[in-house]
Amino acid sequence: VRMRNKLMIQLERNLKVDPDLILAVMIHRISEQKGFQLLLESSEGIIKNLDFQIIAGGSVSAGDTRGEGIAHGLYLLSQYFPDRCNVSFGYQDVSTPLLSCDYFLMPSMHEPGGISQLEAMAAGCPVIARATGGLRDTIKPVSGTGSNVEGYGFLFSDFSPWSFYDAMDRASHFFKNSDEETFATIRENAEKAAYYWDKPAKE
Asked: Contact, 71 vs 82, CB < 8 A?
């Protein structure tokens, strides 16, 4: 079902239809805090060397000139790599992309708690994120191989395009060198780890 979703969203978003390309989604409020500039600065290597496709977008807050500049950069990225990058602006329904992609990107500058990574985890989507605040607390890094694989995320520490690229490289390597069962396991790990308020409410 997930592969069907992936191929259909590739077709719908005018991306190259190829199950072997790694589809990553980065939909947030477009601002400097969310780390879109790390994606822009490392995009050529991520797309050309690591075989990623990117679905990105979101809304820009009124008066946020830095956000507007980042949005323009995302637009140019989609023009430069039309079959590998799709960008949409304004309110985004993230549910379909999360149920179709291979990874969710959240390279935030800071994130006290974070909701987006929990939504991705609930959708069975592994997360590539910066180890800060609530992201570090809720995302367990992938470790092990085969049936012994644990975790559901790839973290990096420095807020730099080099560190972000390194995490993307590790995620790409895992995707390309894992069988379907192993990758399905980290999806299941993500779903099981999704944090809901009913537990602390009962406590």
From this structure: no
pLDDT > 90? residue 139: yes
pLDDT band (50, 70, 90) for residue 79 = very high
**Token pair of 97 as six digits:** 């992309």
pLDDT digit string, tens, across residues 17-44: 999 999 999 999 999 999 999 999 999 9
How big is the chain, counted in residues? 203
Rounded CA-CA distance 99/27 in Å is 13
* CA-closest candidate to residue 194, choices 144, 141, 139, 156: 139
Give the alpha-carbon dihedral of 104, 106, 111, 113, to 10 degrees: 0
What is the torsion angle, in degrees rounded to the nearest 10, for the CA atoms of residue 180, residue 5, residue 36 and residue 52?
50
Alpha-helical segments (H) within the chain: 2-12, 36-48, 65-80, 95-98, 116-122, 133-138, 161-177, 180-193, 198-202
Question: What is the pTM (predicted TM-score) of this model?
Answer: 0.93
